[in-house]
Write a structure and sequence with these properties.
Immunoglobulin-like; TIM Barrel; 4 domains
Length: 754
């Protein structure tokens, strides 16, 4: 009789379940062979009646040890082949028993690799996975929280009540539970009770989809359910080094590129309108574009401009638009603001169809303190350092990952692999690398801790970056890994086996600051600052550099690129054209921020979209034409990119004409030995017969002139090109006698015949 199965230990375990402090529910729940008979125990808070359906028979379950612990005797081992019939509050439903599925999800090998920080596909185990377990479809939940007292699944399925579905603790601080009652689209969180009795509701760190802000729950979502057609693109990408190719990047923020009216809703495939996601409170009546709309509008735009890559500011899920995406809470989920993960996959797929690579901003340097995020995850400093002198960026209000912990490094390194494997991205730009490398970054004395050698280097972060890049290129040899690193840290772009950080490109912040400082001053004073436009060549070959004019330079009162320039509008436009042309002819890969391609006037505002109305005016059309033609020229002239990181690729002709603020140089490539001559005049003064030495006599075609009428310039130039004259200058026997337009850059190419 069932009355004989009363026991104090069962009552004690049930009380622990009631109080949400039981880390081993399988000890009493599910089928058990106890006192020579098979008993099923079911935990059903606030249920009125529970019955067990097994082999066409129904067995009433009694609550003899606890009012919510229902028990029934069965004639044989039911395994998982039974159902539970529950009556609660006048509603009756039937379900499978979550605690009848007792096998471990994370095996010994998985746990071992994770514990040592080398499980490169850990997302295939952690998180919420739609699986079929013993012929029953459901969701397997798995989370790492070694310090928690108990963890429960909460969601609509249990009215967000943590008493209903406690998880099972496994070895290594892993918690698991198979939920046969849950399906794709269900929202959930983890209710974590700490050893001190505090309760936290946490989103899934490995969640593949999250609710649209301001909501922050995780959503069950499928993986591996998208049909890619970019295999040739991926094969070509990974068969050769990308840094030996032209790279011209359009950096952008998806949420502020273009908005749409809320009245014009996006229609689903079935014709139903999608609920609009408001763009901003400050811009009522507007909504964010969806991934499909961005696919339709953005990709053709970028292709028409001739960029080789789109770089997206962080699209990993984040709660606050004003963080620009840099305060991530969902590392494994593209933000739901714009649609579903598969819609983002289609965006990338379409980019590849159109010959455009996709780079994502990746943020392993810090994370926010939002209650639903990683901070103090299981009641302890799990993901972050416990000491704020190591574990917090006070000026940003964020926390720093504990790079010394294997499982934390695993979380991040696997995340890197995840974006490449699951979304086919082509590159990453790693944010704030300098803040990771130095323990005293933006910290006064007394607020940082030296490393074990007494230095300011963050040795753990260095090892993490090396591991991340090593693993990345191991899996994806054609990837781009770009460091936003603003210091003189050595060997940023050298391989890890040489002691480098392992990136293959580094943003040239020195060039950016020098150029903006130079162009912001009155042209008359530029003669005293010639070094600003020439100094970059002295260190150009110490790293593989990318020239970047990024979002950081057009916010917080800095003005947009056009309005940084001195003088009247004509000079502003001409200076902008000259700077961009010089950038495209200078060694290094290229990145500009959205809006620069047409001369945005107001500084970037994350709550607004770009000033597209400016394209009604010819000067702005001219700047966009300039970018179009520069990108076309850049890709067609290997001398502008092939030897970017080889001193052979660049040679000064004259960098010392300070009085005229004129520089001249050659770009070369070593396969065909073709070269280009570039002459820049950074003053509004026109020169009618300026002589520039060249190595070979003949005709030099003027293949580009930033002062052309198509770009909004005065259309002064050299009538298509110039023949050399016999004139000894700049250590050459031949020279070009050129007309140098005001505030311009001109490019010439030697021709065998005129």
């Amino acid at each position: 009789m069932i009355e004989t199965i009363q026991a104090d230990w069962i009552k004690s375990e049930a009380i622990n379940l009631e109080n949400c402090c039981n880390d081993n529910p399988l000890k009493i729940l599910g089928p058990h062979f106890y006192e020579e008979q098979w008993v099923i125990r079911v935990w059903m808070p606030e249920a009125d009646e529970v019955k067990i359906n097994f082999k066409n028979n129904t067995y009433k379950a009694e609550s003899i040890n606890h009012k919510w612990l229902f028990e029934a005797i069965l004639p044989e081992n039911p395994n998982y082949n039974y159902e539970i019939n529950i009556s609660r509050g006048g509603i009756t439903h039937t379900q499978h028993d979550p605690w009848s599925y007792r096998e471990e999800w994370m095996g010994e090998v998985d746990r071992h690799l994770f514990a040592e920080g080398n499980h490169h596909h850990i997302w295939e185990k952690m998180g919420a996975h739609l699986i079929e377990e013993k012929n029953q479809k459901g969701v397997m939940f798995c989370i790492w929280a070694p310090n928690a007292k108990s963890i429960s699944i909460i969601g609509d399925i249990n009215s967000w009540d943590g008493r209903h579905h406690p998880m099972q603790k496994r070895l290594g601080g892993i918690w698991e539970l198979f939920m046969p009652t849950m399906q794709e689209g269900d929202t959930y969180k983890y209710e974590i009770r700490t050893q001190q009795g505090h309760i936290y509701e946490k989103a899934d760190p490995y969640g593949f989809l999250h609710e649209i802000r301001p909501q922050n729950g995780s959503i069950v979502s499928k993986l591996k359910n998208f049909n890619w057609n970019d295999s040739s693109w991926i094969s070509n990408r990974d068969s050769s080094s990308q840094i030996n190719k032209p790279i011209s990047v359009y950096e952008m923020h998806l949420g502020s590129w273009l908005h749409e009216s809320t009245d014009n809703k996006y229609l689903e495939d079935n014709g139903e309108p999608r609920d609009p996601v408001p763009a901003a409170d400050l811009k009522p009546g507007t909504r964010l574009l969806t991934y499909p709309e961005l696919t339709e509008k953005l990709i053709p735009y970028v292709k028409e401009r001739g960029f080789t890559h789109i770089e997206l500011m962080p699209i990993s899920e984040h709660p606050f638009d004003g963080s620009w995406g840099y305060q991530v809470t969902g590392w494994y989920a593209p933000t739901s603001r714009f649609g579903t993960p598969n819609e983002f996959r289609e965006f990338v797929n379409k980019c590849h169809e159109e010959g455009i690579g996709v780079i994502l901003d990746w943020v392993p340097g810090h994370f926010p303190k939002d209650k639903h995020g990683l901070a103090f995850f299981d009641g302890c400093h799990l993901y972050e350092h416990g000491d704020s002198r190591i574990g917090e960026h006070k000026e940003w209000g964020t926390l720093i990952f504990n790079y010394s912990r294997n499982e934390v490094r695993n979380f991040l390194v696997a995340n890197l692999v995840y974006w490449f494997e699951e979304f086919h991205i082509d590159g990453i730009r790693v944010d704030a690398v300098a803040s990771m490398l130095y323990r005293d970054y933006l910290r006064p004395d007394g607020e940082w801790i030296p490393n074990e050698n007494g230095g300011n280097e963050n040795i753990e972060a260095v090892k993490f970056l090396q591991q991340a890049n090593h693993v990345l290129f191991q899996h994806f040899p054609g990837a781009l890994s770009i460091a936003e690193e603003s210091t003189t840290w050595p060997m940023v772009t050298k391989p890890t086996d040489m002691g480098g950080l392992g990136f293959n490109l580094k943003w040239n912040m020195g060039w950016m600051h020098d150029m903006l400082d130079y162009f912001e001053i009155d042209p008359w004073f530029r003669q005293f600052h010639q070094n600003s436009v020439t100094f970059s060549i002295t260190y150009n070959y110490t790293e593989n550099f990318m020239l970047a004019l990024s979002h950081d330079e057009v916010v917080h009162g800095k003005s947009h690129l056009l309005h940084k320039m001195p003088g009247d509008d004509w000079k502003k436009y001409a200076n902008t054209r000259a700077l961009l042309t010089y950038m495209w002819t200078h060694p290094g890969k290229k990145t500009i921020f959205m809006g620069m391609e047409f001369g945005q006037r107001q500084e970037w505002n994350v709550w607004d979209d770009l000033q597209w109305e400016l394209l009604e005016f010819e000067p702005h059309k001219g700047i966009r034409n300039l970018i179009d033609d520069l990108n076309a020229l850049y890709k067609n002239e290997p001398a502008l990119w092939k030897n970017d990181f080889d001193p052979y690729g660049f040679q000064w002709i004259d960098c010392n004409d300070k009085s005229n603020s004129v520089i001249s140089f050659m770009r070369r490539e070593n396969d065909t030995n073709e070269w280009l001559v570039v002459v820049a005049n950074f003053t509004p003064n026109t020169h009618g017969s300026y002589k520039v030495g060249v190595p070979v006599e003949g005709f030099y075609k003027e293949i580009f002139n930033s002062d052309g009428s198509r770009y909004g310039g005065s259309n002064k130039g050299n009538m298509g090109g110039k023949e050399t004259i016999n004139y000894n200058i700049h250590d050459y026997q031949n020279a070009l006698e050129l007309a140098l337009p005001p505030l311009s850059v001109s490019i010439f190419k030697h021709q065998s015949k005129k």
